[in-house]
Specification:
Blueprint lengths: L2 H39 L5 E3 L3 E2 L5 E3 L7 E7 L10 E6 L8 E8 L2
Parallel strand pairs: 2-5
Antiparallel strand pairs: 1-3, 1-4, 4-6, 5-6
């Protein structure tokens, strides 16, 4: 095997290694977003205590008779709007490397 062939094989091995690493990182990102979205969907149809937005991803569910409770009528993606008459509460997760907004709650008073 010549020196040129070894050099070419080394380059190919590095490129394949970087591609595998990128694939693993993308899979982890997808898994995190799926987990965060499922957590968000879990409060659909329940009453929650939230402000104008949620920055840490933690949404406290409460009884609908509690003072300040709001009913989650729908959960939408970050780029979507809520139906007429519902208030949009953006939900951000603190561990995200980008904007972190995983979705939004469409809420109303119970």
């Amino acid at each position: 095997m010549t020196l040129g062939q070894r050099h070419a094989i080394g380059i190919v091995v590095r490129v394949v290694g970087l591609a595998l690493l990128a694939g693993i990182l993308l899979a982890l990102e997808w898994a995190w977003r799926s987990h965060a979205w499922n957590d968000l969907k879990a409060v659909d149809g329940r009453c929650v205590l939230v402000g104008a937005r949620v920055d840490d991803g933690r949404i406290r569910t409460v009884g609908c008779r509690q003072n300040g409770a709001r009913y989650v009528k729908d959960v939408v993606r970050p780029s979507s709007q809520c139906p007429q008459g519902l208030t949009r509460v953006s939900v951000r997760h603190e561990l995200s490397h980008d904007t972190g907004y995983v979705g939004a709650l469409c809420v109303r008073n119970p």
